[in-house]
Design a protein that fits this description.
Blueprint: E1 2-6, E2 15-21, E3 25-26, H1 28-36, H2 40-46, E4 57-61, E5 70-75, H3 84-98, E6 105-109, H4 120-134, E7 155-159, H5 163-188, H6 196-204, E8 212-216, H7 218-224, H8 227-233, E9 241-248, E10 259-269, H9 289-303, E11 309-319, E12 330-333, E13 339-342, H10 349-364, E14 368-373, H11 378-383, E15 388-392, H12 395-408, E16 412-414, H13 419-423, E17 432-433, H14 442-451, E18 460-464, E19 470-471, E20 481-482, H15 487-497
Parallel strand pairs: 1-7, 2-5, 2-6, 6-7, 10-11, 10-14, 13-17, 14-18, 15-16
Antiparallel strand pairs: 2-3, 4-5, 8-9, 9-11, 12-13, 15-18, 19-20
Helix pairs in contact: 3-4, 4-5, 5-9, 8-10, 9-15, 10-14, 12-15
The protein binds ligand BES, manganese (II) ion (MN) and zinc ion.
Ligand BES binds at residues 269, 283, 287, 344, 346-349, 374, 376-378, 435, 442, 466.
Length: 500
């Protein structure tokens, strides 16, 4: 989807999109369109259930009196409630309405609206942002799609008085879009295309944005003693990788310690010898979602030249059953020196993250560390697909994450940690086992496992994104498929608290 900012004069072709507020209050552009069409807009309004709520749309096709081929009203709800997210939804809904309509272009007219606090230029930037986010499509493997099934809409113009200000406001958002789309691409790719080595290669593209990218291979990880990560990897012919990404955007900061992001990158999770059932196993191609988010986030931060020192680490492995795979009951020694009894080879994400997190802290001494992982099915039982699970050893970090999530529409729900849960992963023969004894508190015992790999004094948060990494239904700014949940959230967290 191409997006640009244009003048606030009515377009001479394509669709024209105008705003409406709650209780059928029309924007100045919508009023103008109504007059020009001899009242067609208000007649359509009277004939429909459209009231101007956020998310509603109303189309008037081929009206007389204007050059546009159709008029689309998009509701934004109560003016006092209008914010970035509402503006993004307007852009997203406009794209959804018009995507397969036959229209090639659309102009969204953003007026100054009574009662709306957001400045029109800012509103326009977020409309553009929402439109491109919704316009994403992963179609590289479709070779035979009918022309009339393909999306027709190719470009959006956002009409606004102060185009310069809108463009300026859009600049950083465009970089976040790049990161989001990068992540969505990685998550959507099948596991025969994305495996540890190829995913590490994709990460190397970040050097173009100014990120330094280093890739550790099998031999290096052996030397470092990453026995848990390597135990997961040993069943696959695809060798593991550890990707280390550094963005140094604040070289002169007083506190140069980076904020660190660590992602689970299981490029395919069969479960290993504790093999998963066949139903939906194909979903496990996106078990590298945490790593994908870390990569997209680094792209966003570097792209918008964020004044922050950030480190991204991705632990990449494929979890396969084979003659060389690890067995239930095997004991592995992690880089931290702690030993793990691997009761269930399907609880592999925590094994990968334990070593990746330890490496991260040993090497970078981060001021805070946040890991992301499609870690447990249990978090889907708890929270469904609406919110991600948040675990933290630090209330301030947790509160900041919750606020950032709320602001960008990627909500987090904080889950508990505690000694009683920690005891559930004690092993009879090693320092810990990789699962609890039953299925109870499955997401919490997984988080407790990770917590044993957090060094003293490091503020740490864990996001269990198993329920939100992939979506089976469209939402206003996220088409179904890979969501990149976490990129916008963590970009926002950095912007609010770790820059400058
Ligand atoms: N990758 C899965 C978790 C998952 C499940 C993500 C469904 C997305 C959708 C993880 O590696 C896993 O298999 N977890 C097990 C843990 C269990 C063996 C303790 C699970 O959740 O069943
Ligand atoms: Mn698993
Ligand atoms: Zn997994």
């Amino acid at each position: 989807m191409k997006v640009s900012f244009g003048s606030s004069t009515l377009p001479s072709s394509g669709a024209v999109v105008a705003l409406a507020l709650a209780d059928r209050v029309l924007s100045p552009t919508a009023e103008r369109l109504d007059k020009a069409t001899g009242g067609a807009v208000k007649r359509a309004l009277a004939a429909s259930r459209f009231t101007g709520k956020s998310g509603q749309t109303l189309t008037v096709l081929a009206p007389n009196g204007v050059k546009a081929s159709r008029i689309v009203l998009v509701g934004l709800g109560k003016p006092a409630e209008a914010n970035d997210l509402i503006a993004e939804r307007v852009g997203g809904e406009a794209v959804a309405q018009l995507s397969r309509s036959g229209e090639k272009s659309a102009t969204v007219m953003v007026d100054k609206l009574a009662g709306v606090k957001l400045a029109p230029a800012e509103f326009a930037a977020h409309v553009a942002y929402g439109a491109v986010l919704r316009g994403y499509r992963f179609d590289k493997y479709r070779t035979k799609e009918d022309a009339d099934a393909k999306p027709s809409l190719a470009s959006i113009v956002v009409g606004v008085d102060d185009q310069a200000a809108a463009k300026r406001a859009y600049l950083p958002l465009e970089k976040v879009v790049d990161g989001v789309h990068f992540t969505r691409d990685l998550v959507s790719e099948p596991a025969n295309v994305i495996f540890p080595a190829s995913l590490a290669n994709r990460a190397k593209a970040l050097t173009k944005c100014g990120v330094s990218v280093q890739v550790l291979g099998l031999a290096e990880m052996k030397k470092l003693g990453m026995g848990a990560l390597l135990g997961v990897a040993q069943g696959s012919v695809n060798e593991p990788r550890l990707v280390v990404m550094q963005w140094k955007g604040a070289p002169r900061a007083r506190d140069k310690r980076p904020i660190a992001f660590v992602g689970k990158g299981v490029t395919f999770d069969t479960g290993g010898i504790s093999i998963k059932p066949a139903a939906s196993m194909e979903d496990m191609k996106w078990d590298m979602g945490g790593a994908g988010v870390v990569m997209g986030l680094m792209m966003a931060l570097a792209g918008r030249k964020a004044k922050v020192n950030a480190v991204g680490i991705a632990g990449l492995v494929e979890n396969m059953p084979s003659g060389t795979a690890q067995r239930p009951g095997d004991v592995v020694t992690t880089m931290s020196g702690q030993t793990v009894e691997v009761i269930n080879t399907d609880a592999e994400g925590r094994l990968v993250l334990g070593d990746a997190m330890w490496y991260c802290q040993d090497r970078f001494k981060p001021r805070a560390m946040i890991d992301l992982a499609t870690l447990t099915g249990a978090i889907i039982i708890s929270l469904g697909h609406e919110q991600a699970g948040l675990f933290a050893n630090d209330d301030e970090l947790a509160d900041r994450l919750i606020a950032a999530g709320k602001a960008v529409g990627e909500p987090l729900w904080r889950m508990p940690l505690g000694d009683a849960y920690d005891r559930m992963i004690n092993s009879d023969i090693a320092d810990m086992k990789n699962v609890g004894s039953g299925r109870e508190a499955g997401s919490i015992t997984a988080a407790q496992f990770l917590k044993r790999y957090v060094q003293d004094g490091v503020p740490w948060a864990h996001l269990d994104i198993a329920g939100v990494t992939w979506s089976k239904k469209d939402s206003p700014t996220v088409p179904k498929g890979g969501t990149a949940f976490g990129v916008r959230l963590l970009d926002r967290l950095v912007r609010e608290h770790y820059e400058g």
